[in-house]
Specification:
Blueprint: H1 3-17, E1 20-22, E2 34-36, H2 38-57, E3 62-65, H3 73-78, H4 81-84, E4 86-91, E5 98-100, E6 130-133, E7 137-139, E8 149-151, H5 157-162, H6 164-171, E9 177-186, E10 201-211, H7 216-233, E11 241-245, E12 257-265, E13 268-279, H8 281-290, E14 296-298, E15 303-305, E16 308-315, H9 316-327, E17 328-333, E18 336-341, E19 352-356, H10 363-375, E20 380-382, H11 388-398, E21 402-406, H12 408-413, E22 415-420, E23 426-430, H13 434-442
Parallel strand pairs: 3-9, 19-20, 19-21
Antiparallel strand pairs: 1-2, 4-5, 4-6, 7-8, 9-10, 10-16, 11-12, 12-13, 13-16, 14-15, 17-18, 21-22, 22-23
The structure holds glycyl-adenosine-5'-phosphate (GAP).
């Protein structure tokens, strides 16, 4: 299967089965903004729930936070985003298209007569590169004046830094400790694309770990290991995960060291999560810009210091895309192509499909009762239309790990058939045991 074809097939499956739709589709769509349908919202929620469990509930040294999207405009001056969160762009004066200055399709030097527009082909119409800030602006209050400009946050991290003392004091944590947050972020990306890989509105799962200076390198290594393991535990193909270390030219202004966890997408190796040693850059800047002391007093050592920060920053949408890409496969079964999303059961949107073999002989009643029982414990789906093979195939495409069929033997023997999505093997399981049978196999932590 050609790689581009795989992405096309995935985008089409996501729409057909209700994972992801284009935003405002009936109006022609909104560029690089996507909506999650019934299956997609479950998939992404499973990603976020697993992250929250691993990062907050399973640990004593991390607290949760849900900071607002809108923040004081000075936050973005302190963070460096107002001055530095920019891309150099050029415009074509003829066709009005806009490009990144380093767009490989541009021939010649933008601003010079030899430069050629990659869209309309005109020569000499490209402007000199100008810096374009990626933050979305909006206005707070009734008057659209400069004083009231606020930004949609381009990352969730800043909400953590400005709340670090509030969380530290209210939770009675001591350093080392962390703050975790999941939330929306917005970037007016110039080259978005690859479906939900790079979008203008997305969700981040970020954790900032506050440590004593000098212990940061050790914590950085620990966090690298833990985060890679988390991705492996999602069931992703291990050979498709790798580290990428940022060289001196790549390092962000705040970072002392940075590694990306990359996945091999059909469009190449790309970042799904970044681990950064941010030193005391963030707290130092917020201390300077707010005029508030943000130092920590270490009672044990009787010393005061500005903590260093180790950050782990992943995109929930990117992880969801990784799961979709990794799970997609096509197989030949009895002369037909079977499309399967082979999700790890723990992240599958629906855990079990329930099917009466036929719509008579008491089977629908038994199947409905079983369905309602299962649905109280985990997402299940009831389907009584079409041949049983077709119903299995529909569940394969949705990535549902178990198909449960109520048949002629169910009334007499009180047993059902449980069909496994990947092997297509079938087990006979007691009607009263089905819920426990499925629950045991979807835990997956
Ligand atoms: N606080 C650090 C920070 O935001 P980043 O590398 O810019 O670092 C972290 O972003 C993660 O957020 C990325 O690894 C990616 O998963 C996700 N992300 C960033 N920009 C995105 C976009 N435009 N669309 C979808 N996900 C994005």
């Amino acid at each position: 299967m050609a790689d581009t074809t795989l992405m096309d097939k995935l985008v089409s499956l996501c729409k057909r089965r209700g994972f992801v739709f284009q935003s405002s589709e009936i109006y022609g769509g909104l560029g690089s903004v996507w909506d999650y349908g019934p299956l997609g919202v479950e998939l992404k929620k499973n990603v976020k729930d697993r992250w929250w469990r691993a990062m907050v509930h399973a640990r004593d040294d991390i607290e949760g936070l849900d900071a607002a999207i809108l923040m004081h405009p000075r936050v973005w001056e302190a963070s460096g985003h107002v001055a530095g969160f920019t891309d150099p762009l050029v415009d074509c004066r003829h066709c009005k298209n806009r490009f990144r200055a380093d767009d490989p399709r541009i021939k010649g030097t933008p601003g010079q007569p030899d430069a050629q527009c990659p869209v309309c082909g005109s020569k000499g119409t490209l402007t000199e590169p100008r810096l374009f800030n990626l933050m979305f602006k909006t206005f707070m209050g009734p008057v659209e004046e400069q004083a009231a400009v606020v930004y949609l946050r381009p990352e969730t991290a800043q909400g953590i830094y400005v709340n670090y003392l509030n969380v530290l004091q209210s939770s009675r944590q001591r350093i080392p400790f962390g703050i975790a947050q999941i939330g929306k972020a917005f970037r007016n990306e110039i080259t978005p694309g690859n479906f939900i890989f790079r979008t203008r509105e997305f969700e981040q799962m970020e954790m900032q770990f506050f440590v004593k200076p000098g212990t940061d390198a050790d914590w950085f290594e620990r966090w690298r290991e833990w985060r890679m393991q988390w991705h492996r535990d999602l069931g992703l193909t291990p050979a498709k995960l790798q580290w990428h270390q940022h060289g001196p030219d790549e390092l962000a202004h705040y970072a002392r060291a940075a590694f990306d966890i990359q996945y091999e997408f059909p469009f190449g190796w790309q970042e799904i999560e970044g681990i950064h040693n941010r030193g005391d850059f963030d707290l130092g800047r917020h201390q300077q810009y707010s005029g508030k002391k943000l130092e920590y007093f270490d009672q044990a050592g009787n010393e005061r210091y500005l903590p260093f920060i180790v950050e782990t920053s992943a995109g929930a949408d990117r992880v969801a895309l990784t799961l979709l890409v990794d799970a997609y496969r096509e197989e030949e079964v009895e002369g037909e192509t079977r499309v399967v999303l082979g999700f790890h059961p723990a992240v599958a949107p629906i855990k079990a499909g329930v099917f009466p073999l036929v719509k008579k002989d008491g089977m629908p009643e038994l199947a409905t009762a079983l369905y309602h029982d299962l649905k109280r414990r985990f997402p299940a789906f009831y389907d009584d239309s079409g041949a049983i093979g077709r119903r299995y195939r529909r569940m394969d495409e949705a990535g549902t790990p178990f198909g449960i069929t109520v048949d002629g033997d169910t009334t007499a023997q009180r047993t059902v058939t449980v069909r496994h999505r990947d092997s297509m093997q079938q087990d006979r399981v007691g009607l009263d045991q089905v819920a426990a049978y499925v629950a045991e196999r979807i835990g997956g932590d």
